[in-house]
Every structure is written in C-alpha cells, then in structure tokens.
Amino acid sequence: MQHNILRDSNITKIYLIYVNNGARKKEVVKLRFMDNKECYFAAQTPIKFDKPKKKIPAEINVFTSDGVYKTKVTLLDTNLSLREILYEVSIPKTWDFVQLRASTRKLVELPVSIKFNDGFVINATSYDLSLGGISFFTKENISSIYKKISGILTLELPKNTLFNFQDGKLTVETKFVREKDNIEDHFGEQLIIFKFINVSPDDEFVLKNFLIKLD
After folding, report:
1. Rounded to 5 degrees, what angle do the CA atoms 97, 27, 37 make?
2. Residue 152 · residue 131 · CB < 8 Å
C-alpha cells in the first residue's frame, strides 16, 4: 500500500505510537500536511507533555472500515503550541494490512438482551463480539427450547461511537450456537454463544467500524 492511504475517506482513526524515556505513548492524531519527504500529524495538547527525542522509531496505525493499516516510521521532530502538538514523521514506505474478518472476536462489555416469541428474555453483558455473533456468561441454565428457536437480540453501543445504529442499538435475529463451561475465572458460569442472522449491510458497516476501533 502507498502512503496515500492517509488520505483515504474511509479512515475512522489514526494512532501514532512511540516509546519515550521508557514509556509507551499512543496518541490519536490527524493528518495536517504531507509532501514527498515528511508527514505532519496534529494532536490535542495535554496538560502534561514530555517532548519525545528527535529521530526515534514510531508506528502509525490507520483504522478504516475495511481493516487496519500499520507502518513503521521515524518520528523526526515535535513542535508544541498552546492549541496542538505537531508531530513530524518520515513518509511511510510500506503498509501492512490486517483485514477484519467475521470470525475476529473482540472482548467488550455491552448490554445485550435476547427476546423470544413467548416473552422470555435473556439479559446479559457481552463477553466478546464479532461480525458473526456474540457471547456472554450466565449462571442461569437456558432451557433447551431456547437453544432451538431464534430470538430477537438487542445490543447497545456506547453513545460516543462515531458510527452508530439507529437509537444506538443493533436489533437483529439471533440463534443459539453452543455453550462452554469450566472456563478459568468463571466458576459456576457458562459461556453462551449466539450467532447473528441476516444482518443488514448498513448494520454490518456500523458493527465493523466499532470492532475495528477496539484495540
């Protein structure tokens, strides 16, 4: 991939990562300017800022709706003003791309409920989430009938999510897949896994963007 990925309209977030005086720094930045020799990224000025040394190794992670682009660069210099920090870095030469797949699962705690036609409802907090489904821990035994029929799942995303569902909630048909027990640190609980059925392209786009930003 060429460095013009930095101008891609699908970008949701850019991180600049470096180590300064033994401390790992990870800053959310925005591209300010780019020519044939350097890139300039801006970030908000923190209350306390330890200016990094010149010409140290750094990494840029670019999150898009398709996946994550990563590259190694050199942090050439840093300029501090009252309004922002301006990072000067070398032009990326090559990019590594990590595509988000349906099987990619991310640990995240979100409110989830599953309602069945007879009025029975499972309320839980998610353990992990993927494009294909969700899992959660519970101490309650789920009746075998609810493992055979589909229900309606409602998942609530944080309100500050850049791309969000209508009313901030994903509502989708779901069906039981399997359960696991004897999991470390969850004695007496079962990990219940449900899959999503017929997720719309629009909802999948929102869910994919949310998962990509979880790192």
Report:
1. 65
2. no
